[in-house]
Amino acid sequence: MEHVEPCVGVDGLFRLCRECITLYQEEVIKRGRDYYRFANSFLLSHQFHDATDAHSKNEHNMNLGTMRDLLLDNRPIVENHFRDGFTSNEQLALIFNELDRGENVASAHPFVSCSEPACQVRATDFEAAMSDELLEKITECINSCHLFTTELTKETVRHLFDCTLSSPVTCKNIRLVSLFFDGLRKTSVISRSWQKVIEKHKMFVKSDGVTYVCAHDLSVALYQINNKQATSLNQKMFKRLEEIYKLISSVNSKK
Q: Which of 148, 176, 162, 173 is nearest to 240 (CA)?
C-alpha cells in the first residue's frame, strides 16, 4: 500500500493546490465533470494520510480546510486562476492572498450588469442583486425541482429574495430547499448567512403548514444531503445550479 504523506505548512498547501489544478484541467475542463462533484471528490480523497503526530495532523487538516473554503465557497477565484493551469509559487500565493482578503465576497455581485435599463439591483438581507434574466432562471429551477407545495411566480421569487413575502411558502422538501440555497451561496448569488435570513423573516413553513422552518432545520437537512448518496432529483438540482452559474459567468465575460 502506498505511503501517504500529510500536506504540512505552505509547501503542503501549495502541493494540494497544484494537484487540484491539474485535476481541474483534466476533469472539469476537458471531460466536463460537474464542478461540485469534482470539488467534493478531491476533498474526500485527501482526508487521510499516514502521519501519526499531532502537528502533522493539525497542519494537514488546516490546509485541507483552506482548500475546502477555496473550492466550495469561492468558485469565482477558482475559475479565474485554475483555467490557465499556472502552478508557480507566485501564482499560488496570489490565489490564497485573494482568498484571505475575501475578494470573492467583496466583489459586490459582479455578475449583475446594470448597463441595461431593464436591470434592477436590489440589496437585501440575502445580499442578493439580481438581473431579470437571473431571477427568471432561478424561478425555473425552484419550480422544476418542486421545492415548494405550489409553483412560485417570478414576482413571488422576487419578493422572496427581497425578504418581502406577504406570507410564508410551504416547503415540499426541506433537504432540496437547503441544497438549492446552499448552491446559490456557493456561486455567490446570496450571502453565507442565508439560513439565518430565512429564519429571521419566517419565509418558509414545514409541510404541516404551521411550523416555521428555522436555521437549525436547514443546517441538519443540508448535512443529511451531503452524507447521502445523491438521488436523481438531487442530480437535477445540480444541473440547474450549473445553468445558473454559467449565466453568471457569461455576464462576467462580457464585461
A: 176
